[in-house]
Amino acid sequence: MSDRWYSEAVIYCLDIDTFADSDGDGVGDIQGLISRLDYLAGLGITCLWLQPIHPSPNRDDGYDATDFYNVDPRFGTLGDFAELLHQANNRGIRVIIDLVVNHTSDQHPWFQSARSSPDSPYRDWYVWSDQQPADRHQGMVFPGEQNETWTYDRTAKSWFYHRFYKFQPDLNFGNPAVRDEIKKIVSFWIQLGVSGFRIDAAPFIIEMTEPGNANSPKDFAFLTELRQHVQWRSGDAVLLAEANVEPDELQKYFGDSGGSANRLHMLFDFMLNGRLMLALARRDPEPVIEALRETPALPSGAQWATFLRNHDEIDLSRLTADQRQDVFREFGPDEDMQLYGRGIRRRLAPMLGNDRRRIELAYSLQFSLRGTPVLRYGEEIGMGEDLSLPGRESIRTPMQWSMKPNAGFSEADAGKLIRPVVEGGDFGYERVNVTLQRQDPGSLLSWFERMTRALREAPEIGSGTCTPIDQVLPPGVLAHRADGPTGTMVFLHNLSTKHATVDLGSLYEEADLPNDMLSDRPYNPVGKLDALELAGQGYRWIRLCRSYAGAGPAGRPV
Ligand code: GLC
């Protein structure tokens, strides 16, 4: 097994405000989350990623902080947070938090001071231009909701830069004082006991913005600096970053040209995410095989984080127009399901027509491919979205715990909830909730528990190599293998709806007593691997061989 805990982790992502409300004010809180830690432990989660926890006017769901050294009072106090870390630790669960430092809220005291006078000590903490920058209408992240990246501030009598909404002024990372402050923030949370950070908008943090230049240079050295700093403070803290960039740029985020992994430990695999969606839409594994082949070789210790759904729209911008149309047609045909012209604002279960076999297939694929899987709250019970809510809020509805009012999320009056719970229909809390599924061994939740258990018994998935098996296979079938110091796993996924028989007999000589670890239904024993049955939309996780410490030269147990 790997020394690097994050290689073999199962990460669960949630927003405290929609998870569990302990005090009946309609907003989820830290004590509510603490009361659900046993649920998460039972699900096999080993790491929680908490979305922004800081005080915030909440105009971008907390991604607009006003104080990086505190928790949102609606969630509790720093004391509650320390208790959360303690209780999570007792259950073997690590906690990482969102580090959103590309920008602050415009209500942050730093910005308020900066705009008030050119002499403010915080003036240079932000990015200003006295003239109207020529690239003012370029580089928007939220087209339709955002018209510009430079906005004139009357108080400051100057233009300020904001990669995202105009209430999120960008910090100036060219200023050493800002870099020092970020290190201080990181140190503070490490000292409290977090195991790392999900770095929001990494490519923009390192952008050395020049007014008028829509392609301003990037200073990757800051990532090296930050990594060094973090590792001095805590040897095993992890930096997991959001960097949805061109494939040939990716390596620079992991490490410098010297070839060592001295920057970010992990990146979300946006490329694979888009290709997985395409493969599922076309019922054809080719896009996944391509993604695996095109993945740049990573320096040792660097790791991908895989995901199907996150808290934003599914971003299909790296697919070609034709490919994107195929995904839209299959998974988000109505205009209202689409966002920013590039994405889909739905959860996975409704996208897949609530077809249980297809949902299992999709998650089995994600969890068996290389990297560390990240699961978003509610996906384990197959929650749906609420398209009547604006933009990305559609997929940010409260967790559905039970059939009680408000889905057991809160005892507040329904009108006081942070967001309405999904009611009625196939995805309403009356049908889709933890309590019902916990009692049903055939539920999606029970399946997730079995699947994460199989994953944790197969550390080669996270720590080993992942290779598509290069041989002629029935149409729609993907075969891949994971090889690591603990042994070899082989996986079959049938993206088509037709039954298939797969011959992997050539692998039999590598095998010691191969057996199924997880499958969509019981199959005949794997035998000599030369006639493996695979139902339409079926999958099989087969352990080919296991290596033991002290194994002989052929890797067989001695
Ligand atoms: C990231 C987050 C997104 C947020 C944005 C601005 O892209 O994932 O939710 O709106 O950063 O902070």
From TrEMBL:
Pfam families reported in the protein's UniProt record: Alpha-amylase
Catalytic activity: Endohydrolysis of (1->4)-alpha-D-glucosidic linkages in polysaccharides containing three or more (1->4)-alpha-linked D-glucose units
EC number: 3.2.1.1
EC class of the enzyme, as a word: hydrolase
Matches recorded under SMART domains: Aamy
Residues covered by the Glycosyl hydrolase family 13 catalytic domain: 13-416
Assigned keywords, A-Z: Carbohydrate metabolism, Glycosidase, Hydrolase
PANTHER family (alphabetical): ALPHA-AMYLASE FAMILY MEMBER (PTHR10357), MALTOSE ALPHA-D-GLUCOSYLTRANSFERASE (PTHR10357:SF219)
Stated family: Belongs to the glycosyl hydrolase 13 family.
Protein name from the UniProt record: Alpha-amylase
Taxonomic classification: Bacteria, Bacillati, Actinomycetota, Actinomycetes, Micromonosporales
